[in-house]
Each structure stands twice: as C-alpha cells, then as structure tokens.
Structure to design on (463 residues):
C-alpha cells in the first residue's frame, strides 16, 4: 500500500485546509514539516543573527506541537525534520515509495524553486499535487490572469470585491489515514534546534503573548470579535500603539497558517449577521484583502520580490536603528518593542521603515531582513511587499515619506508610548517634549543621528 506525503508549510491547521482534505483520501499518509536549513543561516554579512529569530521559532514550535497532537487524535502523526526540504522529501518519498506528495501552492520564489527541484528529483511514479491553502481565493476565481494583476491595491480590491465570492470553509477531518509502516515520526527538541528559542518569552511591557497553534488562533479571533467587540471599533483603534486590543493581532496565526484568511472572513460575516455591517467590520476584511494582494503580487514577481538577495554588510546607522539607538524616541521605542516582543503595530512598522530608508538612507532590504528575523508574524509576501512599498521600489512606486516626528506627535500625542519603552522619558512632562528630549535636556539626551529639514515645524513643545 503506497502512501501519500502531506508536506505542511505555512498551513499548520486542520480546519479549512483543502490540501489536507484532498490528501485524506489516501490509503496511508505521512505528514511532514521541514524547518528549512536556509532559515538558520545568518541574515546578513557580519551578523550572527539567523534569518529566523527565537520569537518566531518559539511560536512555530508551539504550533507544530499542537498540530501533532491534533493529528494523533485522528489516527495520524507528524514528522518534523531540519534540513534542505528537497533532500528530506526526496529521501522520504523514496523510502516510503510514495505515490503522491501534497503541498500548498508556492507563494514566493524559494518555495516555487523547492517544488521545481522536487519534481526533477522524485521518481517518475511519485506525483506532486498542489492546492490553495493560504489565500482567500483560488487563482481560478480571480477576475484576471496573474500576469495582469493590477498595479495598485485599490484597483485589485475593486475588481475582487465586485467579482469574487467567498467559498464555504472545509471542515476538519474526523479521522485520517494510518501512518505508513516503519516510517519515522516525531519532532526534535527545540533546544537542539535553537536553545534561545526554548527560553524565549516576550517582554511583559508588550501587554500581549502570542501562543502558537490553531486553537489559540481561533480563541483570539473569537475573543476579539465577540468579547472585545472588535467589529465595532477596529477602524478607529487600528493605529494605536499601546494595549492588547487596539488591533486584531491575528497576523501571527495567519502567517503560520494556524488560521486561514477565509476563517477570519467567515467569522466577520457571522458577526455582521448578528450586529450589522459596520465600517470597522468592513475594514478587517479590507486588511485581509491587502494581505491577499501582496500574496498574489509575490507569486507574479517571483525572485524580483527580494531584488538582489545578496545583502550588503550593514553599517553603523543600521545597527543603531535595529538596537533602538537612533536618538529619536518614536523609532527607538518601536525597535525595542520589536526586538523584545516580536511584534509592533502597523503604524510603527511604517514609520521605522520610512526612517531607515528615507532619513538614514539605508538599504531597504536590510530592514526587511531584520523584520524577518524579529517578527513572530513574519509573512514573506506581506513583509517584503510592504518594505518595497515604503521604499518606493515595488508596485505603485510613489514617494511615501513618513515624517516620523509629525507622526509621533499625531499618534502618541502625550508621549505615553515612548515613555513606556524608554523609561528615562517618563521624567519629562507628557506631551511633545518626550519626542525631542534633546531640546529640553541636552545634558541627558543626545540628538538623533539625523534631523531632516521636514522635522523643523514639529521641533517645538507647543501642542
């Protein structure tokens, strides 16, 4: 009895998993996850930090542990390996004499390359089958061919909202095919993969703790919509900086596929059926469509998403930025939060990205790589797409300059956010002075690395 192999990637769930649903018809099934060895390489020349940092790896291992538990309940199991996924899967397919290998459709060029190499190395009677597992819509449902993807998000959204319908969710399987005889199973201890990830915990000042897994993701979705009434206030609070509930915080579970975007959309529609459509409930789906756009753009652009993959050796300005030592409180607070919690708000992401690229003049790819290292919710399409967007080198390449000092005063009017992460600022009175403390107390606070002319109108303490 020849088994099938199910290769989990960023689709670590049982509910609304069409690829798993299709693979469940196999006579026996080998479920595999491969931590790609390339993610354990240094992220840039001269740096010891890996492409995948301890925060994301900790969340990933939690998600894999829960996934394995759910598979065991249904008569299956999970095999987790570390290495080159092509080599690992080729060996497993040969050893098990697999008839099919199931995997989600590739999002970025690395994933597409893996599948192309697999097709060349697998035996002729082992066939690869792919399916849509990480997007709201199938490619066949889009109202245009991928080669004609609109250049702007607004044009994409208008066409999708007009022509695309949401399909019903795929239910979780009750039972799964048995594990192939004599095939390995189980997971390596996280401590052997990355000791730092084993002991990693978020800074409590972040006021939120991400827990990996499908159950935790669904619990957060339900809590935000129904208990926190997020469908009625998301649009008004989404630019917040402090607290657990100013945004959905669903991005980490979406990034690892513990939740599907269709599950989020379906829950929003349920909420609207009970409470009515609101500007905020619409805006949650609006943001899902942004994610959708970046995913299709990544597929269209291939390796161009990353520009040149050989990153330059980072200089002093970049290291000051990543350590939160630029001298500008709004940027430094966000970078400290990122490094110690694995997450920052979308408003903070836009500002620190603009500051690195437009004010410090650093290579945007270094910023994208640092986010890849730090973020629990790292998503290849959204991360690199958004960095290109801010840098003005991606789709719709208009100049998007964020006047960081103006933004700081607009979104952190009293300076509570910067004082929260930079305790020395708490001794200053609430207000604009906390955003340029070198003016009022030059003996205690050094000026920032740069002071663009665009900041001049905002270098006063008056509101």
């Amino acid at each position: 009895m020849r088994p099938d192999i199910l290769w989990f990637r960023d689709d670590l769930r049982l509910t609304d998993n069409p690829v798993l649903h299709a693979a469940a018809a196999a006579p026996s099934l080998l479920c595999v996850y491969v931590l790609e060895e390339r993610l354990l390489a240094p992220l840039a020349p001269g740096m010891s930090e890996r492409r995948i940092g301890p925060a994301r790896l900790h969340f990933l291992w939690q998600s894999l542990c829960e996934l394995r538990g759910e598979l065991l309940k249904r008569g299956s199991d999970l095999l987790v390996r570390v290495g080159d996924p092509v080599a690992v899967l080729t060996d497993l397919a040969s050893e098990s004499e697999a008839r099919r290998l199931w995997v989600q459709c590739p999002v970025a060029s690395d994933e597409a390359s893996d599948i192309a190499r697999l097709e060349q190395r697998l035996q002729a009677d082992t066939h690869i089958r792919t399916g849509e597992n990480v997007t709201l819509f199938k490619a066949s449902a889009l109202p245009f061919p991928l080669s004609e993807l609109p250049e702007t998000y607004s044009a994409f959204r208008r066409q999708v909202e007009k022509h695309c319908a949401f399909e019903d969710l795929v239910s979780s399987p009750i039972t799964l095919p048995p594990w192939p005889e004599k095939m390995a199973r189980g997971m390596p201890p996280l401590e052997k993969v990355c000791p730092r990830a084993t002991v990693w915990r978020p800074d409590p000042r972040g006021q939120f703790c991400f827990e990996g897994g499908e159950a935790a993701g669904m619990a957060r979705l339900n809590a935000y919509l129904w208990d926190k009434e997020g469908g009625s206030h998301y649009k008004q609070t989404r630019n917040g900086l402090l607290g657990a509930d100013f945004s959905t915080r669903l991005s980490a579970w979406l990034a690892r596929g513990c939740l599907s975007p269709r599950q989020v959309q379906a829950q929003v529609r349920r909420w609207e059926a009970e409470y009515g459509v609101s500007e905020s409930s619409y805006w949650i789906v609006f943001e899902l469509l942004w994610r959708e756009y970046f995913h299709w753009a990544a597929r269209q652009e291939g390796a161009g998403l990353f520009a040149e993959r050989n990153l330059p050796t980072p200089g002093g300005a970049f290291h000051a930025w990543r350590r939160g030592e630029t001298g500008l409180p709004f940027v430094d607070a966000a970078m400290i939060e990122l490094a110690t919690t694995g997450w920052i708000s979308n408003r903070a992401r836009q500002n620190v990205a603009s500051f690195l690229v437009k004010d410090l003049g650093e290579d945007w790819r270094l910023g994208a790589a640092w986010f890849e290292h730090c973020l629990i919710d790292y998503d290849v399409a959204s991360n690199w797409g958004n960095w290109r967007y801010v840098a003005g080198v991606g789709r719709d390449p208009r100049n998007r300059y964020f006047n960081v000092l103006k933004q700081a005063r607009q979104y952190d009017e009293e300076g509570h956010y910067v004082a929260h992460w930079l305790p020395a600022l708490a001794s200053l009175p609430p207000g604009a002075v906390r955003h340029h403390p070198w003016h009022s107390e030059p003996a205690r606070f050094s000026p920032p690395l740069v002071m663009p002319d665009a900041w001049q109108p905002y270098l006063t303490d008056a509101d």
User: Anything to note?
Assistant: The two ends are 74 Å apart (CA to CA).
